[in-house]
Every structure is written in C-alpha cells, then in structure tokens.
Write a structure and sequence with these properties.
alpha+beta, Jelly Rolls, 8-stranded mixed beta sheet, 4-stranded antiparallel beta sheet, 10 helices, 14 strands, about 30% helix, about 20% strand, binds 2-oxoglutaric acid, binds fe (ii) ion, iron, Plant_2OG-oxidoreductases
Length: about 350
Amino acid sequence: MATPKVSTVKTLVEKPGLTHIPPTYAFQTRSASDQEIPSNEAAGEPEGPIPIVDFSLLTSGTPDQRSTIIQDLRNICQDWGCFMVINHGVDESLLNKILDGCREFFDLEDKEEKKEYEGKKILDTICYGTSTDGPPSEALFWRDYLRVRVHPEFHSPRKPAGFSEVLAAFSEGVRGVVRDLLGGISESLGLESSHIYRALDVESSLQLFVANFYPPCPQPELALGLPSHTDPGLLTLLMQNGINGLQLQRKGKWINANIISGAFFVQIDDHLEVFTNGKYKSVTHRAVVNNKSTRISIAVVNGPSLDTVVSPELELLGNGSHTAAYAEMKYKDYLELRYKKSLNGNSTLNHIKI
Ligand SMILES: O=C(O)CCC(=O)C(=O)O
Ligand SMILES: [Fe+2]
C-alpha cells in the first residue's frame, strides 16, 4: 500500500494564522507510556545536573587524571547512561557550519532537492521526512528530519552548496571523539582500551547523521517532537542550536537535558547495553517542543558495522558465572526490526532480551 503523503511541520507552521495543532498531532492519541508524564510537567533535575566529562583529560591528561576520568565514566555510565562532553576538540566553527547547513537544507523549496529523498527506508542512504521514521502511524510528531548515512561510505545531499564538505568534516570529527570515548568506556569495564573498537568493528561503523527540525508549535503542551525511545547504535552524540527540548527518563521521571553550548550530549545506545550485558543501559529519551523558537538538533548515531553480530561480551560475563541476558543479533537485522515498528515506547531491545 502506498504511504499517504503527509505535509511537513515546516509547511504547516508557514500557513498564516495557525493557532491550534491538527488533531493528529495531539498528545491524547499517544500511548499510555507517554501520557503518564505530560510533556512539561514533572520535568526537572531531581538528581542534580547531568554529568560533564572533560574529554581533554581522557586524551591528554596525566595518568592520574586519566584514571580518575575512567572511574568517573564507569560511575556515570552505570548511574546515568549519558553525559555532556566538553573540550572535545571538534572546532566550534564546524559545529556552527553544520547547524547552518541543516537549517539551509530545511529551508530549500520542497519541490527541489528535498523531494528526491522523501519516504526512504532506514537503510537507504539519504532520507528526508516528517514525524518519526518508522511505519506511518495515526499519531504524528512535531518534527521534520534529514537522515544520512555518512560512514562507512559517505553520502550527502547535493544542496545546500558546500554542505557535503562540512558534513564530511563534522562526521569525521565525531568519529574521532567516539573512538576515544569507546576507549575510555572499554577501560571503565576493565577491558583493553581498543577492545570495543576491535570487537564491534567500529572502524567500519555505520554512522547515521540525523538532523531534527522542530518549528514553533502553537500548543506545545499537546504535541511531542519525538516520542519516548532509545537509539540503536553504541553511542549517540547530540548537539543543538542553543534551544533545549531533549528529555531523559531517569528514576521514573522525565528530566530536561539542558545542553551546554558547544558540548556534545552523549547517550549510551542499545548495542552498548547488549555488549555490557545490561551493565550500562541505553537511555530512554524524547523531544518536547516549544511555541517560541525553531529547535534544530543533530544526533549522530554511531554503531558497530552493519555486519557485526553483537552479543554480550564473554569477558564481562565473568567466565560463565553470569548468563547472557540478550540474544545475539546482526546490527543490520536489528535496525530492520526496529524500523518495522513504530517508535513509540517499546524498545527493540525487548525482542532480544532473554
Ligand atoms: O532532538 C532531540 O533532542 C532528540 C533527537 C533524537 O532522539 C534522535 O534523533 O534520535
Ligand atoms: Fe534518539
């Protein structure tokens, strides 16, 4: 059956005099798990601010500083599953250029370049769309997006001019940060620094670049930008245009992730949860919207290679004294399974939990 075309939220807000959201975007149609905690109520920071990791101490600190940061990473990954990374070495001007480039992409006339990338599937190279990227559902989300496969082969939309060079430099910079973070995380688990990188073929990592565009919404308390979900990869690095809207589920509450300007917000994803046999859990998150400013976020989902079969690492199972809590699965098959379902609430991880 052909997918009915749904207009983007950008087109919707450009119509003059929009004071109410169309009923298909209304929160009441959401699953019970999203309704339990309405979008802006109960959001706060009950456990103190999100931890901050100084990346420069991991890469060029003294041995003492490095071992402290690795111990911090162990505690943070176990307790929070997410943190902000400062001093990551990716040039601030590059971060600004990629944000500007994404805004220009969303500003292209719909009839031009963007049309070519509509309605594609998860493993297609470039996809532009609205709402979530699973199968069409009755409820819609206040979000347009561009998703591009940038590694192991690099792809890019042809427009806007110069975007491709910026995207290549940005995704390479992110891969460098991911490599060193995975090194620190490996050590935090008592493994050799290069262990995760080698075991999960991160050299050929599937790296997905996702730009999310959330225009002002006239009734933000009734709509959501993205529903509750976890990301499928190993680590997601996220940045934004200075407008907050990301929320994390922590100890049964939604809390606001107020991201420091210029920092990367790092999340543990499903496949680090599998690899660590649940010691480090992937973070459930969602995006709320506001009625004042357009929010753009960029989430880079860094995975193993598509052909890597991921299973709980034997060395972390204590030589057989713990049993594996997740079944093994090829990353490619996991992605296909995940994008067959609608995003709302249910984690794909539940399919492989033993
Ligand atoms: O916009 C955000 O803050 C969240 C984006 C996100 O979760 C995603 O793209 O997977
Ligand atoms: Fe996400």
